[in-house]
Specification:
This protein is an alpha/beta fold. Helices cover 43% and strands 13% of the residues. It contains 18 helices and nine strands. Helix 5 links the parallel strand 4 and strand 5. Helix 6 packs across helix 7 and helix 12 packs across helix 14.
Length: 397
């Protein structure tokens, strides 16, 4: 039984992957057995054979994991136990006085990889052409079952529990006032933190907000939009209805039967294809990376860093269980009461209307629609994302 001291200890962490694990990965990559080509000329049947074959070719012959390992180990990483589970996190303190502590939460199929290019600009703005007044102490944890964090052995680690763990983590780090940011699962977890409204939480920022009124959310997937929606609200409904009717198969499987996905632990190609197929717009951008034409920062190395991290930690199945654990409506209003900021990216699953956003976040301090970026906002457009976060939190400093 852990003592109180050991249970709250913060331990330094470094990534050290044995060479034989990389050899095994390459062997499995080279042994990939392929299906036949899809019978359509577009991606309507899923991740296309040509994309996967180029991904696997590059992964097995040119990709350098040691480059990524060194990149991670250049950052201060830590482990600490919360509610019996090891939580891995990056913690970069700003060199500037009065930096605002910020916890950023990733999503699925993402990881801490999504945030690596924003940590420097957020923590040390003067080194990136910005003002010291916009500095943050940055904390980026790996969610339970993801990356280097522990894999829950019991049920109960849903978004609400994670939100509570993040509040405990920030308190353990000694922060008496902090802000939180998230997209995808991170957005839901951040919203829950904002609804719990601990006294230390000064505000939140989301790039995938939960704004759908409950009566509207119930109609998603039905094909019949409710009456009385404005043009922006109708657009949002149509975007999410498209996602619910054509693109949510992966979430349905993980929501119902995550343990069935043994291929994610056994085949690198299966894991890669599963992780690429999040939503149509993101897949289009990621596929372009393997065609030699990356969109923003979504290069083939960045994409494979994320997939390789998931493979080496064998978290394909454990990360999927978060869908099974979740009891909240993904895009529903969560009852956030703290100051809230929202950035709307044009190729997100849906573009949140200002009207619904104002209703969902009664203490809305910032709302902005940007002109580029998809679901992986921080990953694809780190400079734009950084600017949004800096601007969003200026009024709560």
């Amino acid at each position: 039984m852990a003592t109180i001291e050991s249970a709250t200890e913060i331990r330094s962490f470094q990534v050290e992957v044995p060479e034989d694990e990389l050899d095994d990965l390459r062997r499995r990559i080279h042994a990939t057995r392929w299906p036949e080509r899809e019978t359509v000329a577009d991606e309507s049947q899923g991740v296309q054979l040509a994309t996967m074959q180029e991904l696997v070719r590059y992964w097995g012959t040119e990709y350098d994991f040691r480059r990524f390992e060194a990149r991670l180990n250049a950052l201060p990483q830590f482990m600490t136990e919360i509610d019996g589970l090891d939580i891995h996190f990056i913690h970069v303190k700003s060199p500037h006085e009065n930096a605002l502590p910020l916890i950023i939460t990733h999503g699925w199929p993402g990881s801490i990889v999504e945030m690596l290019n924003v940590i420097g600009p957020l923590s040390d703005p003067t080194a990136h052409g910005a003002d010291a007044e916009d500095a943050f102490d940055v904390v980026v944890p790996s969610m339970p079952g993801y990356g280097f964090s522990g894999k829950p052995q019991n049920t109960g680690w849903g978004p609400v529990h994670i939100a509570e763990a993040w509040i405990a983590l920030m308190r353990r780090l000694g922060y008496t006032r902090f802000v939180a940011q998230g997209g995808d699962w991170g957005a839901q977890i951040t919203d829950v933190m904002g609804a719990k409204a601990p006294p230390e939480l000064a505000g939140i920022h989301s790039n995938m907000p939960g704004t759908f009124p409950s009566e509207v959310a119930k109609t998603l997937g039905s094909g019949q939009a409710p009456s009385g929606l404005s043009a922006d609200e109708s657009r949002a409904w149509e975007q999410l209805n498209f996602f619910y009717t054509t693109g949510i198969g992966y979430a349905t499987e993980m929501n119902l039967r995550p343990q069935t996905l043994y291929g994610l632990a056994d085949s690198p190609a299966a894991l890669a294809a599963w992780m690429l197929d999040h939503d149509a717009r993101s897949y289009e951008d990621i596929a372009r990376a393997f065609e030699g034409d990356p969109v923003g920062n979504l290069t083939r190395d960045e994409v494979l860093d994320n997939i390789t991290l998931t493979w080496l930690t064998n978290t394909g199945v454990s990360s999927g269980r978060l869908y099974w654990e979740n009891k909240l409506g993904f895009f529903d209003v969560k009852g956030v009461s703290v100051p809230a900021a929202v950035s709307v990216f044009p190729r997100e699953l849906y573009q949140a209307p200002r009207s619904w956003t104002q209703q969902a976040y009664p203490n809305l301090i910032y709302f902005n629609e940007v002109d580029q970026g998809n679901h992986f906002a921080a990953w694809q457009e780190p400079e734009l994302f950084t600017t949004e976060v800096r601007t969003a939190f200026r009024s709560v400093r």
